[in-house]
Amino acid sequence: MCLDQTELSHNLQQLSEKARSTTEFIQRLKGMSDKVTESCIEFERLVTAQCEALIQAIHDRREYLLEAIRMDKDTKIRILKDQQSNCTGKLQQTTGLIQFCIEALKETDSAAFLQVGSMLINRVANTDMTWHQEVTNAAPRVSPIVDLTLDDASVLRAIDNLNFIQMKPPLPPAIIPEDCSAENNSVTVAWQAPNHSFVEGYVLELDDGSGGEFREVYCGKETICTVDGLHFNSMYNARVKAFNSAGEGEYSELIGLQTAEVAWFTFDPVLSGGPGSGLIFNKNNATVSVEGWEHRVALGSVGFSRGIHYWEFTIDNYTADTDPAFGVARIDVNRSKMLGKDEKSFAMYIDRQRSWFQHNSVHERRVEGGISTGSTIGVLLDLQRHTLSFLVNGMPQGSVAFRDLYGVFYPAVSINRGVTLTLHTALDAPQMDYF
What is the Cα gyration radius of the chain? Predict the structure, then answer.
């Protein structure tokens, strides 16, 4: 076989394959035509059922409205019959009085007339007066007109707008950057509904603040959401998607939101046990004191799980022989014991002369140097090294107090009567030698 014959045979084989593929495609199209017919028949059935349900709802509503008219009619007729009966009784009494008076006027004996004349004059005068009030000036107690109007405009507009919608997943929402913000360790994300899309809800996702995997933080119908309890000094990426019964749409563009580098917080009265705690908060929850002799734990309003954080307390009042404790605690700490007495808290307790580090009722490493009114206690929580250290009046109080701290920790103090503290936050962490 020559080269031309080989090429022709090869081309014919390719053409034959294309013809076979086209034949199969035509068959698929025919099959799809049958499915279109079946789908339209089923859809016609559904639309017919929906319209019949709407028609039945109109019929039911019509019966309700007609019954309301009938009840209004029966009420008005009953009122009119009662008024008619009252007027008929009044007329009968008056007619009887008139007839009696006519007969009395026929009396020829003046003495006999004088016996009843005065009484009849009063009765006629009173009857005339009440007649004027009750009959002459009377009006029907109800109107014969049905003072109701059927408000069908909105229903007619809805019927005029009754149409098909193309059910498909919605388009991506649009993030509104000017309405998004970050404050302390929370971010607020706002977005706009996609145009020309039917939306049943939204899903908001954030990454882990370090460029890691996204997680769902909100699912609902609102178009703005604030997420609390995030890490400080972290860049969070946010994205949102819309969904409906046809499925989920594509994600919006990402927006990055930077949480605060240092934390601003106060004491949290609710986390500290509420009104029954015995703690007294002042100066917008920055100052705390207590009346009782038993130690009570006050917690800060934020929890930390990573980063370096530093805050201080000033001793506003220290008149009793007591030993306040400073440190951190987990959210489920025992709030009725000195800080450090249970396994949920890590603390330094200090008096006028010395201090100890305490955790789970084990206290160790006494350090000389105490506090008085005006002293400053610094707490350095380093969750990069997972350590906790303390400073008194700007100087390290011993070596690193605790190591291997993992999890979420809240700033905490425990005090009893005779101590008043003020919390200072949003401070830069001091440089420390970790020894």
Answer: 45
Q: Three-class SS of residue 432? A: coil
Phi-psi region of 297 (alpha: psi -120 to 50; beta: other; left: phi over 0): beta
Closest among 152, 180, 164 to 255, alpha carbons compared: 180
d(CA 294, CA 279): 11
Nearest Cα to Cα of residue 347 among 326, 368, 333: 326
Q: Are residues 103 and 247 in the same domain?
A: no
Q: For residue 21, what are the CA distances in angstroms to 18, 121, 142, 243?
A: 5, 119, 84, 38
| Coil, helix or strand at residue 143 | coil
Provide the 10 A C-beta neighbour count for residue 421.
22
Tokens at residue 433, please? 């030698």
Report the C-alpha gap between 293 and 368 in whole angstroms: 25
Q: What is the DSSP letter of 409?
A: B
CA–CA separation, 307 and 317 (whole Å): 32
Q: pLDDT 10s digit of each residue in the chain, 435 long?
A: 566 677 777 777 887 888 888 888 888 877 777 888 887 888 888 889 988 998 998 999 899 888 888 888 888 888 888 888 888 888 888 888 888 888 778 777 777 777 777 787 888 888 777 776 666 666 777 777 777 788 888 888 888 877 766 678 999 999 999 999 998 889 999 999 998 788 999 999 999 988 889 999 999 999 999 998 888 889 999 999 999 988 999 999 999 999 988 889 999 999 999 988 999 999 999 999 998 889 999 999 999 988 899 999 999 999 877 899 999 999 999 999 999 999 999 999 999 999 999 999 999 999 999 999 999 999 999 999 999 999 999 999 999 999 999 999 999 999 998 999 999 998 988 987 755
* Domain range enclosing 238: 174-259
Place of tokens 């009085």: 97
Regarding whether 282 and 227 lie in a shared domain, the answer is no
350 and 382 belong to one structural domain? yes
Residue 232 shares a structural domain with residue 288 = no
Token pair of 144, please? Answer: 């014969």
The set of residues, in sequence order, having a beta carbon less than 8 Å from that of 262 and lying 6+ positions away, is: 232, 233, 309, 310, 425, 426, 427, 428, 429
Residue 245 and residue 274 in one domain:
no
